[in-house]
Amino acid sequence: MPPLSGFSDNPLRNRDDFIAAAIALVQPLHRHFSPGKATIRLAHSTGAHFDEGAARLEGFARPLWVVATLLHSLKHDDDHPHGPIIESLAKPWIEGICIGTDENHHEYWGTIQDGDQRMVEAEVVACALLFAPNHFFHSLDGRYRANIVAWLRQMNGKWMPTNNWRWFRVFTNLALILVAGIPKDELQGEIDNDMAVLDTFDIGEGWSSDGPWLTAEQEAEEECESARTGRYDKVGIGRQADYYSGSFAIQFSQILYSRFAAELDPERADMYRQRSREYGATFWRYFDSNGASIPFGRSLTYRFACGGYFSALAIAQVSEMPAPLSSAGAVKGFLFRHLRWWARHSEETFYTDGTMNIGWLYP
């Protein structure tokens, strides 16, 4: 499998290098768009536990983390040399959001049901609105804006798992309030209910479990059952504290919330910034001096998303971080070393069409 030009050979020393790497990762996806641009289906598809429509929406939505933040990077730099490339790169995603939320179009993403995979992707769409509101909302025709609002509002009143998924609805409602202008009073009840659940995941020192944590009594019962049966593979609820506690989901979400909801919810934003400081006091030890991260826990196919915590710190500009994260340069160093490590070990990461395969250091 070949390396990816623009990423594998990228020195990753500064902001321009970072932008070039992001562009290189996203560009190969263009050839895999559906005709209406609302979905992406890669040639090297694998099975999923959800329906094909949701799977194709996932293919469209996940790259929005990159596309929306690339557009955000142009907010105060209209003359950036990469500007025209980024605008062109983002165009099919802007078109796709208009088509995917149109219930009368055959590429409509579908109705969001209880516990639906579409809930996961709705958060990414919502965050795209938060990062680049003009491109993904304000500059669009009124009927497209109405369709986006209607599709996102389907998140409310639905059942979802008691885990990091609750953040998906929080950010969806945050985008509806801050970008779409929906009155806060209409959505605050949903936000409060989800926050009440998320607050129960806090286990101290900045860490959160991904779901309710076992009580001492429940843990003792599980130990007794394991000793009796000789089975230690039946892990109970709430025994999950891995990268989902940090870069993949909860810390990442808390930090972004402190960035976007600083005026809407200043008290909670302050609390989350403090938790990010506590978490950072030990999380940096999960990365060696070359940037490699400890491979443990679920979803290691997310690869360099392990460094997402550092990206969130940077964009939220969290101050008063403990050493060795006590300056913006230090945070940048952890992030760039991590990405450089992946770039230098990417010889088995990409297919010949430039898209990323599924795996860690191997497909």
UniProtKB/TrEMBL annotation:
InterPro entries: DUF2264_N, UCP014753. Pfam families: DUF2264. Residues 15-363 form the DUF2264 domain. It comes from the Eukaryota. Coiled coil: none annotated. This is DUF2264 domain-containing protein.
